[in-house]
């Protein structure tokens, strides 16, 4: 009987120790912090392209380019737009969309989006579908959580 009491006592003490230890390892109060700090998320997208002229030669020039974001692959109304003066060197150009007109997070709802490029009066087609990297922009919402786990 005494051996059984010692075994039960050892199990209970072991469980209490394990529970206490798990409480410290899994959720120590000192490591659970809720932050009300907001962080600025850039509202810009890097865009790079390559331009060739009608003779299939790489373009080197400075051009006014209008970039627009649409929710359809053709037609429709732009959700956002800006015009930039862009240096093109041996066909290559790189711009930061949103450097003049910031891009509102409301432009990215999780649905597909396309970028249209217009140089002068000429609209280049097809539009370029925006893929996952630009959609990381949507993570902006993660900084505005409505709830958090209590400590």
- Major pleated sheet: 4 strands, antiparallel
Spatial extent as radius of gyration: 28 Å
Please bin the fraction of helical residues: 10-25%
Taking pLDDT < 50 over at least 5 consecutive residues as the criterion, the unreliable ranges are 3-28
Quaternary status = single chain
Global morphology: globular
CATH topology name of the domain at 45-138, in short, is Immunoglobulin-like
- Look at the helices and sheets and give the structural class: alpha+beta
Mean pLDDT: 77
Summarize the structure.
The model is unreliable at 3-28 (pLDDT under 50). The protein contains 2 helices and 6 strands; from the N terminus they run H-E-E-E-E-E-E-H.
Describe this structure in words.
- It is built from 2 helices and 6 strands.
- A hairpin with a 2-residue loop joins β5 and β6.
- The strands form 2 sheets. The protein has a 4-stranded antiparallel beta sheet with strand order 3-2-5-6, with no helix packed on it.
- The longest helix has 25 residues, at 2-26.
- It is an alpha+beta fold and 151 residues long.
- It has a domain at 45-138: Immunoglobulin-like.
